[in-house]
Design goal:
By secondary structure, the chain is α/β, with parallel strands linked by helices. It is built from seven helices and 17 strands.
Length: 325
Amino acid sequence: MEPYEIIACSLTSKKVLSIVQSLGLSLRSAKIKMKELPEIYLSFGSIILQFKRRMGKNGKRMTRIDDIPIGVDVSIRKRCARLNRITGRFRENVDFKVATWSNPGKSIGEWIKHIYSIFRCKCYEAEFHVGKIRVDIQSLRNAFPKLRETVIHGSLEEEPNDQEIQNTQIILRAFLPYVKNVELHDVHLQENLCLQHIGMANLRSLLIDSPNSPKFDDILTLNVERCAIRGNHFSFRNLNRFFKLWTKGSFPKLKYLTVEVENIVDWTVLMKGLKAEEAEVDEVDEKQYTIHNCYGNRAEIEECYNKADIFGMPDYVSIEFYVFN
């Protein structure tokens, strides 16, 4: 049976659900997208299922996780290799099917729990679009499985409304203590829950993609293994201060850091006082330096040019920092 057929079969009775659960079926990844209507994405490798809840009766908007939708739209995408008889080569095709299931009286939260009770999965993710969510955020925590990653998309508006700010804070307070990976896109943080608080969490990775540049002090509390900061431009002087703090034993957990800077790297300012050793590289325009901290750990600092603009100049340059124990 295909995965969507197994899920459909599990809805027929409690006994069948128990049998399906006992199989211990594996799932590569699962993601919940919280938009105006919640969506669930299940990846089985070559097969991807999407479950999208329909509105309530008479087009009634669902506002709580225990509201009951009138039905579920199921999309099935299946990748398969097919032989081209002319060229004799295999090429990848995608079969796409759409079906609508009637709802057996389950609320949105019950749908989430039901689907996740069937499969074994190590990668549960949730993606929140705080400007589009219409479901009460407070009712989400108990319905979700243990998440590994949380992605939050804010508004592109320069001044987000109070509801978006409140939604962001509720999501972070509810899930930050449990997740390992966090991504923040166009998220406006406030003083009572700022980047410093997020940086202190015991995270594996943190990605910040925001037009509002964080302060240098915000990254001094980093307690993450991998950190990427996009859409911001730190000064070379501040990055030099950061690397000096690392050489003195700060940020012991950090394994990788990348930040965006100006198009032309001022290596004199960036390497000042670090006792860095310049490494040989293949490209003439590239530079790479090696530094050590007080514990004898080695780190490499290098520049990475990103996509060029219409004049052939890079839009921005990233400074990448790798730590080797």
